[in-house]
Automatic annotation (TrEMBL):
Protein name (record): Bifunctional uridylyltransferase/uridylyl-removing enzyme
Source organism, top-level taxon: Bacteria
Keyword Cell inner membrane tagged: no
Lineage: Bacteria, Pseudomonadati, Pseudomonadota, Alphaproteobacteria, Hyphomicrobiales
GO terms of biological process kind: regulation of nitrogen utilization
Gene Ontology MF term list: [protein-PII] uridylyltransferase activity; phosphoric diester hydrolase activity
């Protein structure tokens, strides 16, 4: 028994208490007695569990918590076993076959247990199962199940265990972890001895290969990045399973029983062993708290849990970082340490000549060892296409080599030898201000950062070894920094490295189909290295109280000259970082058909070259946020903004009047209306007001004309049309209906009920009292046919709702209850009413926590305020919604009184927060 565990459970007293139940000669197998035994065990387990949780909250020792839980479980199983053989299935003269060794295997075999873990047991028999043994095992299992435990179990004899372990690596690993619990100990010792001699001996390389392959498969399922913002604490990269895999391999190959024995085996230094134990303790603390908090076996550290776990572990807000962000940064740093330990461990295996490659590869490696190619003035050598150091002092002799090795690896397209990575990690103290300010070192770093080969991979290696954060301390500050929101999928450093990778792929031409504009203009950019440096630094100011764009610009002003950029390059770099969010914001939340939007953005962009740089940086940035964040619709918006702005900056924007532009647009459409009578054409062009002619492109004007003509000829005043747009990733739904104030609100409500996510809306009124509304909803299916059918279902619901056949408020309320707000997030609601963003419209921007039915409530409120919506632009960034409406009053004028603006803000604040007015809800 581990010292300090004596007070957790008094097994002797528990045995006496259970024995008292049968002291009068009562049958221990009697159902009434069994019920009393079970009640006592439940009481003990509940008390000890609560006590262990309290101890965990006080000392925050994760490994100790897991060991305490395991110890209590051990004692409960021993007590059940003893009660079974002494009072339920007692045998006066047991035969040689009536023996059982109860054995803990798997994680339980390591004497560690999470609150919600399975209990893995092996009931070891000498020969074959006997009726007595079967009854005892069944009694134990049913008692454990009735206690509410999940039990994984097997019943085998020694020969069966050995035979199965030879062919099944999972069983072999379970036996590797086997620990005697109770019963016949000589039987267990026989298994342990024979397993070591007959299975483990001389099969180390085979086991290592299987376990590393198993790890690779697991990470493919979980996600290969250790920087996912909702990580799996057990199975994810850098989690507990990675540490356990290392120890399984160590235990198997080096024949050790405890992690500290790895020091004597030369695998880990004492400092690295301390690091191993620190990582293990932290991960166990997180896992145990997750199980306690949820009262189940929860392994995914979701947003909903992160705040609570941070509080349980004692994190507080500090230096501009929220408690939850500090906790998650600690988690990701630990995950990185686990990766470092994996690297060190693999290097030790190579030193011990563990070969799992084919014979031919081993032969090639022997040849390269005899005649290695040297690099970097003899400091480095190439071994089997991997760069390695030629001696233990190469970095001490010249610290610049800590940067040069990465530049050479990139230049020669070499992987890193584990020995080199280990030495780099152990040489980080050599990176000081002298090295950081060394022109040669910075030139080498810039070569890596702007490489045309694979800069992301080499920079990632620099980050994993700690060199990147030490050489650029400002980057080190954002290493493992999590952004507590649903929009960003990765930590800040991971996002920055992925954005470099995205830019590299665009430059190589591999993204031409997805990103035609960025791919087309990048080769013409005058200074490509500015883009790489800007992407490397664009979010480097995060985690501080100020706007990260402003902080990042200041950092760029300092680092630009250090990296060797000219004053002019540094000026552009600072501008790019300060404005790196502007193009995305304008594209997704402003009306791109409004000339004021384009004029204002052109004033920000300043020149065609800066416009190109900003477009490419914006695309790479969004694509690096996470899977699916950049889509065809965002790409289309960015392209539209670029194409509309470029003529302004090139000095080619037309100066013709508004009336001349409207007349030209009408003539352009008339020429395309083949098969129409002249009178029919004339009547049609008079249907639309000037904003329609100026804001809609020609292909859509032609589609609208044919759609309206067909509806009029059939006598319909309510019609819809569906057009899937695969490249943009949206489906366009056009609605022709009698104009009324709640039209867009009804459409939005129908889409909410149908589960269709509106991303944009254009609203036009015809001269004969009809409304022509075009909405764009996110695409759900890859196949156009499937998407057409889905769009038709949505449009059918819209028609039904407009015809009064759907009670939208009740249905939306049910949707909201089925999908409540994400509890983990609290965002302030903000309403901006602005008259300077458009010449003709008042622009209302509303932002806050997204929820089902939000757009429906907002558009209803705008209608209640007697406002006409000309266009709506809907954007979501994870849990945050940003909805922008271009509106006028009922007379087509801007809202320009302070009293009216205040009323709009107050009403929309209430609607955003789900507080509907009685009149509006009726």
């Amino acid at each position: 028994m581990k010292k300090g565990f004596e007070t957790l459970i008094d097994a002797a007293a528990l045995r006496r208490r259970l024995t008292a139940l049968v002291d009068g000669g009562a049958d221990g197998g009697n159902p009434a007695i069994r019920a009393q035994v079970l009640a006592i065990l439940k009481e003990i387990r509940s008390q000890t569990r609560a006590e262990i949780e309290a101890m965990m909250l006080k000392d925050r020792r994760g490994s100790l918590c897991a060991e305490r839980l395991s110890h209590v479980q051990d004692e409960i199983i021993r007590v059940i076993y003893d009660f079974a053989i002494h009072h339920v299935y007692r045998v006066k003269n047991p035969s040689a076959a009536e023996r059982i060794a109860v054995t803990a295997v798997g994680g339980y075999g390591r004497s560690t247990l999470a609150p919600g873990s399975d209990i893995d047991l092996l009931f070891l028999l000498p020969y074959k199962q006997t009726p007595w043994g079967e009854s005892v095992i069944e009694y134990i299992l049913y008692m454990l199940w009735d206690l509410g435990l999940k039990v994984g179990h097997a019943t085998r004899n020694v020969d069966e265990c050995l035979r199965l372990s030879r062919s099944d690596m999972t069983i072999r690993t379970a036996l590797l972890e086997a620990r005697f619990l109770w019963g016949d100990e000589p039987l267990f010792r026989d298994l342990a001895r024979r397993f070591d001699e007959e299975v483990v001996r001389n099969t180390g390389p085979e086991y290592i290969a299987a376990k590393l392959a198993e790890r690779d498969d697991r990470l493919k399922r979980q996600g290969t990045s250790r920087y996912l913002v909702e990580p799996n604490i057990k199975e994810g990269k850098g989690g507990l399973r990675d540490l356990q895999t290392l120890f399984w391999i160590a235990k198997y190959f080096y024949r050790v029983r405890r992690p500290e024995e790895l020091i004597a085996a030369g695998v880990l230094s004492r400092a690295e062993y301390v690091r191993f134990k620190r990582c293990e303790d932290f991960l166990w603390a997180v896992r145990c708290n997750m199980h306690f908090a949820t009262n189940r076996s929860e392994e995914r550290l979701s947003f909903d849990l992160q705040r609570e776990i941070a509080q349980r572990l004692g994190y507080v807000e500090r230096a501009g970082m929220r408690a939850v962000e500090r906790f998650m940064k600690h988690y990701f740093l630990v995950a990185k340490d686990v990766g470092d330990l994996t690297l060190i461990f693999c290097a030790a295996l190579e030193e011990q000549h563990v070969k799992i490659a084919p014979v031919l590869n081993r032969f090639i490696k022997r040849l390269t060892k005899r005649h290695p190619k040297t690099l970097g003035s003899g400091a480095f050598m190439v071994e089997n296409d991997r760069i390695n150091v030629t001696g233990p002092d190469v970095f001490k002799q010249d610290p610049i080599r800590l940067i040069r090795i990465f530049q050479l690896a990139d230049k020669e397209n070499l992987a890193f030898h584990p020995d080199a990575m280990k030495l780099i990690t152990r040489s980080l103290s050599l990176i000081d201000d002298d090295l950081r300010n060394n022109p040669e070192a910075n030139s080498l770093f810039l070569d890596v950062l702007t490489s045309k080969n694979d800069p992301e991979t080499v920079l990632r290696r620099m980050n994993e070894t700690g060199v990147l954060g030490r050489f650029v301390p400002e980057f080190g500050r954002v290493v493992a920094m999590m952004q507590f929101n649903m929009y960003h999928h990765y930590t800040v450093d991971e996002h920055l490295l992925r954005s470099i990778g995205e830019l590299s792929e665009i430059e190589k031409g591999t993204r031409k189909t997805e990103l035609p504009l960025a791919s087309a203009i990048l080769p013409g950019v005058q200074n490509r290295r500015l883009l790489y440096v800007a992407l490397f630094l664009h979010d480097i100011g995060k985690g501080r109280p100020e706007d990260h764009s402003v902080v990042g610009a200041r950092i760029a002003a300092k680092l630009g000259p250090r990296f060797g950029l000219t004053p002019a390059e540094t000026d552009t770099l600072v501008w790019l970082i300060e404005k790196h969010l502007v193009m995305s914001m304008v594209a997704t939340s402003r009306d791109l058909n409004d000339r004021k939007t384009i004029r204002d953005f052109a004033a920000v962009a300043q020149s065609p070259e800066r416009l190109k740089l900003l477009l490419i940086l914006t695309v790479a940035d969004i694509r690096a946020v996470g899977p699916g964040v950049f889509n065809g619709w965002k790409g289309q918006l960015l392209r539209t903004l670029y194409y509309e702005t470029e003529p302004y900056l090139a000095g080619g924007h037309s100066q013709i009047t508004r009336d001349q532009r409207v007349a030209a647009a009408k003539r352009e459409l008339v020429e395309k209306l083949d098969g129409w009578d002249p009178e029919e054409r004339e009547d049609y062009v008079e249907r639309h007001y000037a904003p329609y002619w100026l804001r809609v492109d020609l292909p859509r004007k032609i589609e609208h004309a044919q759609f309206i003509r067909a509806a009029v000829r059939s006598g319909r005043k309510l019609a819809t049309n569906v057009t899937p747009r695969a490249f943009e990733g949206v489906t366009e739904i056009t609605v022709l209906a009698s104009d009324h104030p709640r039209l867009l609100s009804t459409i939005a409500g129908a889409c909410a009920v149908a589960g269709a996510n509106i991303v944009d809306a254009q609203i036009y009124t015809t001269t004969d009292g009809l409304a022509l509304d075009t909405i764009f909803v996110s695409r759900e299916f890859a196949d156009d046919g499937d998407e057409q059918r889905r769009g038709s279902r949505v449009s059918g619901l819209i028609e039904k709702a407009l015809a009064g056949g759907e009670r939208l408020p009740e249905q939306i309320e049910r949707k909201a209850l089925a999908k409540p707000r994400v509890k983990a997030f609290q965002l302030p609601t903000d309403v901006i009413v602005n008259n300077s963003w458009s010449d003709r419209f008042t622009v209302i921007e509303v932002s806050g926590l997204d929820r089902p039915g939000l757009l429906y409530d907002l558009t209803r409120a705008i209608s209640d305020l007697s406002l006409n919506i000309a266009s709506a632009h809907i954007a979501t960034f994870g849990e945050r919604a940003v909805d922008v409406f271009y509106v006028t009053d009922l007379f087509g004028q801007k809202v320009e009184t302070r009293v009216r603006e205040k009323a709009i803000r107050e009403r929309l604040m209430r609607s955003f927060d789900g507080k509907r007015d009685v009149k509006a809800a009726s």
